Amino acid sequence: MAMNISSGGKRQRGRGSRRAPMAEINVTPLVDVMLVLLIIFMVTAPLLVTGVPVELPESRANALDQKDEPVEIAIDKEGATFIDGTEVPPSELAARLEELAASQDADNPRQIMLRGDTSISYGQMMGVMGELNRAGLNSVSLVTTGSGNEN
Fold first, then answer.
1. pLDDT in tens, 81-121
2. Where are the chain's structural domains?
3. Which CATH class is domain 58-146?
4. C-alpha–C-alpha distance, residues 51 and 54, integer Å
5. How far apart are CA 112 and CA 83, in angstroms?
6. 11, 70, 112, 130: which could join 140 in a potential S-S bond, CB 3.0 to 4.6 Å?
7. Which residues of 122-133 are buried (b: 16+ CB within 10 A; e: fewer)?
8. Could you give the C-alpha distances from 91 to 86, 87, 88, 128, in angstroms and in order?
């Protein structure tokens, strides 16, 4: 903290004496604010990346270019189905997919990204794909992790 301490004994009062302007800037409040903002960003940054923890299979296929934000459907290792991070009970899956199909533009349908954990059965994945097909959502991509075996 900066303080202006005079070395003289008595202060002179009168016409000729003026206090010199303080030429130092106190940066302590600025540093305090910046540290608080840093802590806030450090705490909230991991929360921004939400999703369903799914262990994806590997593939050598290249990623697709997307114009619109795709709809993400995930099946975790317990077999629970999630649409854009929200768990959907099996009894409501068909209705939710039909709502999704009805809300899409017929000329430019949104891409469906289907993620399935490696531990789920093929039947569970095909069941969700069958519901997607029945709802009229045919633009489905299966999400995998990149393989390290590139030739």
1. 998 888 999 889 889 988 888 887 766 777 888 888 888 88
2. 58-146
3. alpha beta
4. 9
5. 10
6. 112
7. eeebebbbebbe
8. 15, 12, 8, 12
